[in-house]
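Let's practice the habit of predicting before peeking. Look at the sequence and jot down your guess about where helices and strands might fall. Then scroll down.
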Amino acid sequence: MPLRDHFHSPLSDRFPWNEIHGQWPGEMVRHLLTLLPQGFRAAPTARPGTPFEIDVGTYDERTKYPRHQPDREGETATLVAPSPTLSVVGEFNEEDDYEVRVYEDDETGRTLVAAIEIVSPANKDRPTNRAAFVTKCAALLSRGVCVSIVDLVTSKHFNLYAELLERIGRSDPSFAPTPPAISAVTVRTNYTGKRAKVETWAYPLEIGSPFPTLPIWLDETRNVLLDLETSYSETCRVLQIP
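Done guessing? Here is the structure:
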């Protein structure tokens, strides 16, 4: 099934983007479970961020400090909370997590070996949100975790893979001079002694075209090939997306 544009009419009018973003991680897990060798497991995460505001009273010198409020006769006086000293509207990053994590299990627990990040509009919205997403991916790579980034968001023309490479002082010539708005990539870090070698498999996406297959590295030598087309097609079938 070729890629659809889930962020513009007419599809977005009937099928909100968060429906496919919520379903797709589970379908990826179902597909991965047929591929992973013994001792490995995959699990989905779908955690949409929620922006909120804080309203914390106005400054008032008369109520800056706690004071005792007299109670009825015979009762112990209680401490009345002071009024807050500042009233502001706070903006917090709306950081979404739509991902699949692959773990290696052993007798001591489980070790994260790969993460597949499905980009949301909020991840690409503000500079702070993009920086938070890139920081998360860079932290995973520094721990030797393979990171895949699947970005279908056509409504925001930023490329988080390109920004991730910029964070580590590198660039991908195949994405120059202007990185595509949507893409699917896998990035891993191989350590030789104290030197880190970054390897990437990067593919631009196009509406109406098939998906690529991404390698998901379990360790330095073993990988499974994630056919994005299979899990995407099943997601669209389950959600009855034409």
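How did you do? The two ends are 10 Å apart (CA to CA).
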